[in-house]
Write a structure and sequence with these properties.
- By secondary structure, the protein is of the alpha+beta class.
- It has helices at about 20-30, 30-35, 130-150, and strands at about 10-15, 40-45, 55-65, 65-80, 85-95, 95-105, 115-125.
- The protein has a seven-stranded antiparallel β-sheet.
- It is globular, with a radius of gyration of 15 Å.
- The mean pLDDT is about 90.
Length: about 150
């Protein structure tokens, strides 16, 4: 993933699944499902389906009036086809959270596929001393989300 900002904490999560790449892709790019697996979060889809480059959506997290929005835009969209890898790139445009994310699927010779979730993010108001905490929290949250999305 191209560097968004050298000062942002970066994470990378890899999981293997028995799901076919096309099914794993469908699950990983179902933005409303992301809202269902991330606690206290819901997806607000701003662009009519199907997803493509330019699709915009917001993940709203919180309780009652205490919420924050994480608006995102799909900047690259290449579903897996005929044994090729799939890749989607997202840019986060929020006031509270900025950065980039990539979800990549690679077919496995043994069947199923390997999923990679890569993310670089910055939480407004938190300086470099908080980068390890942000990265740890993001890794835990995104690992849980990835595993739930890929659960057969």
């Amino acid at each position: 993933m191209p560097a968004y900002d050298a000062l942002m904490p970066a994470i990378r999560i890899i999981r293997r699944t028995v799901l076919a790449p096309e099914e794993a892709w469908r699950r990983l790019t179902d933005w409303e499902r992301h809202g269902a697996v991330v606690p206290l979060t819901r997806a607000i889809i701003e662009t009519p389906p199907p997803t493509h480059t330019g699709t915009r959506f917001t993940m709203r997290t919180g309780v009652g009036r205490i919420t924050f929005d994480d608006p995102m835009e799909v900047t690259f969209w290449q579903p897996p086809r005929d044994g090729s890898a799939g890749l989607v790139r997202l840019v986060k445009h929020g006031r509270a959270v900025r950065g980039r994310a990539e979800l990549e699927l690679r077919p496995s010779p043994a069947g199923g596929c390997e999923a990679q979730w890569r993310e670089e993010l910055h939480v407004r108001g938190l300086g470099r001393p908080f980068d390890p905490l942000v990265a740890t929290a993001a890794r835990l949250l995104f690992t849980r989300a990835l595993e739930a999305l890929l659960r057969p």
